[in-house]
Design brief:
This protein has 69 residues and is an alpha+beta fold. It contains one helix and five strands; from the N terminus they run E-E-E-H-E-E. The chain has a five-stranded mixed beta sheet with strand order 3-2-1-4-5, with helices on one face.
Length: 69
């Protein structure tokens, strides 16, 4: 089931990782790990490089920055 949508992976208040299509209000799916969420996005749209919310501080940025998966 492939789509043309662009996706985001972001951590919600419950500590789960939400897969959300651009422009949507609700998550398409919830996962316990960021890796599982990224895998789901690649199943939904293999051509997409989702924007992934950073969950820790690194030399490249903190939790307020996004990265490509």
């Amino acid at each position: 089931m492939s789509t043309e949508k662009h996706y985001f992976v972001e951590k919600n208040e419950d500590g789960q990782f939400a897969v959300r299509a651009k422009g949507s209000e609700r998550a398409s799916a919830l996962f316990a790990t960021q890796e599982e969420a990224i895998t789901k996005v690649k199943e939904l749209n293999p051509a997409d490089h989702p924007d992934v919310e950073r969950v820790r501080h690194t030399h490249a940025g903190g939790p307020d920055k996004w990265r490509k998966a």
